[in-house]
Amino acid sequence: MSGLFRLGLTGSIGMGKSTTAAMFADEGLPVWDADAVVRRLYAPGGPAGPALEAAFPGTLRHDGHVNREVLRALIADDPAVLDRINAIVHPMVAADRSNFLSQNPGLVILDIPLLFETGLESECDAVVVVSTDADTQRERVLARDTMTEADFKAILLRQMPDAEKRAKADYVIITDTLDGARHAVKDVISDIKGR
Q1: Please, which residues have CB within 8 angstroms of residue 14's CB and are 6 or more apart in sequence?
Q2: Which domain holds residue 112?
């Protein structure tokens, strides 16, 4: 391997993607986290707040945070609102990703939950999908304080099925155990660096 190598990291909710991303970071690789970027853009002083407030008055709280509950309610009333939100936020996310890539030569991880759903696999040199069985996935998701069965089902409907993601992946990391996932991460890195 020589030069920049963009490894896309994705997986459905509850599959262990964040834990696996941390394992890549532990191996010394730069990780760009799409969700963390969105949180930063939505935080007080972030550029998404004023832009969303201009498009959807009432979405910026007094403390400067974007009110995600208001956005969720707007999307529930009119699913087309999501496309309008994405049209505002996605260019900001893309600019942040481009800046990250310009500063990090070599093997980098692009942690993108909806990688396939947004077509961003085309911007990656390879893709790794994290996965586990459906029962473990459900158990992990419902263990979160903020998640209900209805929320879980709604999220799954927006995500490409796990089997499809696995079929499209260059690498699949099974996250049933931490040790197994850690060994798989090292194997992926070794394989890419050996190219």
Answers
A1: 132, 136, 137, 138, 139, 140, 141, 152
A2: 1-30+106-195
